Amino acid sequence: MNNTEAIIKSSYDAKLTNQDLAPLKKQTWGAYNIFAFWMSDVHSVGGYVMAGSLFALGLNSWQVLLSLLIGIAIVQFFTNLIAKSSQQTGTPYPVICRATFGVLGANIPAVIRGLIAVAWYGIQTYLASSAFLLVILKFFPDWSVYADVSTYGFLGLSYLGWVSFMLLWLLQAIVFWSGMDSIRKFIDWAGPAVYVVMFAMAVWLIWKAGWQNIDLNLSGVQYDGFAVVPVMIGAIALVVSYFSGPMLNFGDFSRYGKSFNTIKMGNFLGLPINFLGFSLLTVVCIAATLPVYGKLITDPVEMVGKLDNTFVVILGSLTLMIATIGINIVANFVSPAFDFSNVSPSKISWRMGGMIAAVGSIFITPWNLFNNPQVIHYTIDILGAFIGPLFGVLIADFYLVKKQKIEVDDLYTLDTKGLYWYKNGYNHSAFYALIPASLIPILCVLLPQLSGLANFTWFIGMGFGFVIYRFLNQPLAHAKSAMTKAKVQ
Q: Which residues cross the membrane (predicted)?
């Protein structure tokens, strides 16, 4: 995968081990690398729209900022919780899952997370290709006829759309194939580069609009008194839900951290500090579109397309492309690479796992998925209902049951005496907690009567997963198993 060496002992079973899944010999990432990771994750089309939507909830600016800060502080807290086990052991998310779900059972949570990432990888690539399409048409306006899907289209995407999509797909694959060290270098400059260009665009829009004509309350204040409380709580939940995917598999990156304190500092800079700055830049850009174009534009691709300066359009489009490539690689490429490799480590390398995800993202025709909310509702949303419960089970196991102690060598053995063999390689209590804890979030997706709980499904699922797993497992269970193992040895 990269130049980072892994520790592979002779006792490790080949069916559970490869160079990419084994514990790292040396952890080299500093706080800036983690900070840059979060910049790449936040600076995207989805992040732009999400941040802008918070300012359109009918709250005033300080209420939105307070909701934003509380939400991102919650994200930071839970990210630190999930990060520790991987940083401590030098292992990625699917391997850490072995300690909780069993050395074989870990494939289930890994595949769930991997499938979600594949879908969003395709969608994010499609969004980035839309920005690239703007650049093509700026230089070659006569080609616009080939952007008409009704005349020149295949499987719901225009010929020019296919060219844009596949070019972006190939570019991301090249960055990924170069290895984790190259990915680190890419995100180290991509996040700051997006900031520089966004700041320049904000200045340009303010100059065009006039500062006195910009109102940061995008939809006008609609609530006062105690009526603002449920709206603010909903905004907080929206922020947490948005980051739920990267939070769950953050161990794929925290494993590289020099120390846990390094991870915490990187998370502090990358989450509350970075997210606040990005959100303010976003809302200024969105608010400025009203006096400049006569209407609020929350879609950054549409906003860039309306700019009347060719250089600015190209710069803005390239920025959107870089931003989307950044989040796609860190959130939706690296994750399934580890997840699918974990299914059969001896046959599927990290690179092969990533390419399986990349190829799969083409076959799901993500443009059709993105343009059909009902399909997303019954596929990605249902898979997403498992994220909260998985998180709850993992942290309950690591902090309350295993008391933050993991026997790394036992994560790589199929020996029936191994701590994480449980019963035939599966920890049944983890699944007994996961299934009912996922039921309520799934019902919120399927039943219109429960749609009001949709923004809170991560909290509901996480809470139930945490409580049920803790109820099914006594804290001393792991210690007794360890003592038994020691006596046998």
A: 34-56, 62-83, 118-140, 152-177, 189-207, 227-248, 268-290, 310-331, 352-370, 382-401, 430-450, 456-472
Q: Do residues 174 and 216 share a domain?
A: yes
Cα distances (Å, whole numbers) of residue 246 to 183, 255, 258, 451 = 16, 14, 20, 24
Token pair belonging to 313: 């359009």
Mean pLDDT of the chain: 87
Evaluate if residue 400 carries a pLDDT over 80. yes
Residues 95 and 238 in one domain: yes
Domain hosting 120: range is 31-373
Domain boundary (339, 373, 407) is at 373
Domain boundary among 323, 346, 373: 373
Task: Tally the domains of the chain.
Answer: 2
Beta carbons of 128 and 324 less than 8 angstroms apart: yes
Is 238 part of any domain? yes
Spatial distance between the Cα atoms of 480 and 489, rounded to a whole number of angstroms? 14
**At a CB cut-off of 8 Å and minimum separation 6, what does 441 contact?**
384, 385, 386, 388, 389, 457, 458, 460, 461
DSSP designation for 125: H
pLDDT in tens, 262-306: 999 999 999 999 998 888 888 888 888 889 888 888 778 778 777
